[in-house]
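Q: My collaborator sent me two sequences in one message, no labels, and asked for predicted structures for both. Can we handle them in order? The first one she listed is below.
A: Yes, handling them in the order given. First sequence, followed by its structure tokens:
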Amino acid sequence: MEDLDFLENATASFADIEANGDPVMPLPFDRPKVGRAVRVDAPVFNPVTKDVLKVSNIIYEHHTDGRPPDRAYWVGRKLKKCIFGVVKECTILRFRNDPETPWEVTEHKAAGKIMSWQKIKDLQHIEDPQKEVAAMQFVSRAGTHPHVMGVLDVLQDEEYLLIFMPFCTSGDLFGFVQQAGRFPEPMARYWFKQILEGLSHLQRMGVCHRDMSLENILVDEYTRSVVIDLGMCLRVPFDSGDGEVRDVTGGGLRRLIKPLIPCGKPNYISPEILASDVPFDGFAVDLWASGVILFIMLVGLPPWEFARPEDPRFKMVSKGKLARMLESWKRPVSSLAADLLQKMLMEDPRQRLSLSEVKDHPWVVNDFASESITYQEPANGDEGWRG
């Protein structure tokens, strides 16, 4: 898609999208491309120590045309559990074309998500990891993006589906907020700009994430954030100019999406998704969740449990009193930060800022701390809301 088309969609308001045509269903992703996994034990050469080690649990793709493997993954320690299996740290190996020591250690790591086909079958009514694979391959068609998680290899054997992804060293952004209590404004701005770059890439690819949250943003080397977990994302429909609905490559303006069953983490779900009875703009719901992310980074607490009218905090924000609410919490933010949060968290999506408007907001653009407040640690127990 040309930058001009991206700019048109990044600046488009809800009213523009609403006037563009009737709501439609999201488009399906293409079937994922999955290679055949081979698992072996083999000697591995370490170019630093010059040692040769006998290593077990090496996984690589078998090419049916006889080509040698591009790389292999030496599966190591468990990083965490996931619904269908585990995520493990892997060392990437280089093929040496030496029959005695066919593999060589590299300095690169990967995260390997190892999922049981049996669990996928049993739990497919909850979530389909094959859709996540297809989405990750879709958003990384032109190569991995620095702020959106892509894939290195997707493999399978009789027992497992295996996704190998770039490795992030420093946990998730929620952990950073939890440890700090809340961020000073310059620090929040640093991370928020990177989140916006991730959103920009997703919008360029015509994808709505639908589950943006601090927990779904990993940190690498303490300096770079990466949006992860595309399991709930949608392929946004666009006009093609000839009356047909296509994906983002059609070059037209996006369309509203028909109501769907609500999904995502409670704190981050937009009002229209919670209501699930009105059409929604996929890009607007991601920007709403990003507003909640910024709120939590600056305040140290979520704005509400659910964005529903019966919640008094949501009612206060929806009436334009976000700054007053934070004053009453004794957690004020600068006037510019409050203005940005208020305009991102408008109940009516017609009144919310577009991606371009958020990126052009003075709080985002100006790298100054003159309006930032004195940073204080929160009282004990304030982080129990993570749940």
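Q: And the one she listed second?
A: Here it is, processed independently of the first:
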Amino acid sequence: MTTQPVHDPRRSFAQALDQTARQIAATRPDELGKRTPCADYDVRALLGHLIAVLHKLVHVSVGGDARELPDVVRDIADDAWGGAFAEARGEVERAWADDAMLDRMVTLPWGTMPGRVALDAYTHEFTVHSWDLAHATGRLADLEPALAVEALQAFVEFAPPDERGEQGPFGPVVQVSEDAAPYTRLAAYLGRQP
């Protein structure tokens, strides 16, 4: 009898962070005020949210509750977002390098779960927010389609349309053709206008 290898989400998570880092590096200070498809954020606030998520992942790695930290970091200079993201990413990678973190229970804003489930969820969040950032700044060609395919599969399972309320990060599904590009289908599924 063979056993399935245990899923380690850190590789996909790193790919999502690589993609996000490329989008951040390409973002110019004059683009920071642009609206994003994520209704809560302009580009500056979205960048602050992405860094805040990394801080939350470090915080939960030492037993903290992610809800104890702000959802958006706001004290970063307009030309320092790339460096701030790289620094926070390094902290996350060091905090999650130990394989034991994957099975440790961590508390996120939406519940308590094993670390591997949390990293999967944040892989998909970074994938969606990379699209938000790329859409706002006109850099959609720089996105990795495989990440969108994985994220869409996860969101279909964990964010079905019939369980969405009036409040929350996802709106009603926007209809697009079945042969639309992966990020178009992902954005539309989450209620964003692709």
